[in-house]
Amino acid sequence: MNKFSNSKVSRLSIVVLLLVSAMLLMVFPSFAAEGQVKNVILLIGDGMGFGPTQYARNILVGPEGRLTFEKFPYVGLVSTYSANQWVTDSAAAATAMATGYKTNNEMIGVKPDGTPVKTVLEAAQQAGKAVGLISTNTIYDATPAAFGAHFAARSGSDAIAAQLVDHQIDVLLGGGSDRFLPKGVGPGKRADGKNLVDEVKAAGYVYVTNRSELASAAGSKLLGLFNPSYMNYQNDRDEVNSQEPSLAEMTSKALEVLSKDKDGFFLMSEGARIDHMAHTAEVAGVVSEIKDFEAAVDVAVKFAASRKDTLVVVTADHDTMGLSVTEPFKPEVIRQVKASPEYMALQMKKDQDGVLTAESIKQVFADFAGITDLTDAEIVIVQGTSKAAPYKQGYEIGSIIAAHANVGAISSAIRAQGRTGGHSGNQVAIYASGPAGQAFAHVLDNTDIARILAQVMGLNL
Length: 461
Ligand SMILES: [Zn+2]
Prior knowledge:
Layout: H1 8-27, E1 39-45, H2 50-61, E2 74-79, H3 90-99, H4 120-126, E3 130-138, H5 142-148, H6 157-166, E4 171-175, H7 196-202, E5 206-208, H8 211-216, E6 222-225, H9 247-258, E7 265-271, H10 273-280, H11 283-305, E8 310-315, E9 319-320, H12 331-334, H13 341-347, H14 358-369, H15 376-383, H16 390-404, H17 412-417, E10 423-424, E11 428-433, E12 443-445, H18 446-457
Parallel strand pairs: 1-7, 1-8, 2-12, 3-4, 3-7, 4-6, 5-6
Antiparallel strand pairs: 2-11, 8-11, 9-10
Helix pairs in contact: 2-11, 3-5, 3-18, 9-11, 10-11, 13-16
The structure holds zinc ion.
């Protein structure tokens, strides 16, 4: 022990120094973190606001329990507004998280004027890191697209899929084979005649289409497309005899492939159908999708636990339907639900005029939701969707189940007025674990996420 440590003055100055350092770290959260992270696993629960998370906690582990990501040491809050709306869609939100720039709803990896902006995935790629995107949505839809493509409209599926291939993203796993294949080939819908699957195979990728092929896939580049459109809802897997991998299985395989790169990697893995279920307000489905997402978070945590160079970040792009746990909520209603509202819609029968019959509506609600006391007014609401797309029919079916369970949610009427189909402008949470995780333990804007990720990985964004 040296003589200075014995003096009261020195002890005081050490305390002051420590306090100042702590304050500097609070003001400049990434001050000490520059470049200290080799690998990033970013898991996005689409639409996973506080309400969906609360229902998942209550139903899966009880109100006193903690979901995997709620055990992370660092937690922050994130504002999600877009450049032109208080309420964002997934395109503008993912663009903000990927690039550090706000853009308008519907825009992918570009500023509101259409100028492309570099994404954290591209910056990681430039630094020699391996990169991957996973989604239970189509892989060309908003969230993965905003990390790996640039397009003024999220609906530009053909162009976005082609960009994901051109950009040589090492691992792409999800739904959406329709936009990788030309019309006339399998489920292909591409108008330009290109066969992107043949292109990636020629470029040395392994291509897989089901769970068992994914499990046995080897190599350093991987394309997995498991559905022509969105991947199956968790609550429909048994009904449709699903051969698709879970989000955890996709995340695990992606980590196996990407971690071979000695320069490190960036992986974004999205539980996309949390949002799709939340749009219907049907809470059993929301919870099942969060359970699938949580299992993927578990995979990431286990990978990171054995090493000191991997940051795991879990967040949501926005809240959907302002779900809340009400006092008269009836969990017993939710426990009866056996399939997604969209699947239920597809089981209903129509009369000669193309109108869903009252008989089949009643039958389907009884068979798949255990609801036997539908009112005439509710039957009329469902019949009113007879000409709508099945996912839109699912909105009304889900909201009726939610009403029977006393779920707190944005009303059908308000949902119908918005362009996002029921997103809310509520803040979302962000959870971080691993080196530099403390940088996220603040009230943040979604644009901060890209900047912090780039900084802690030492990337030039
Ligand atoms: Zn949505």
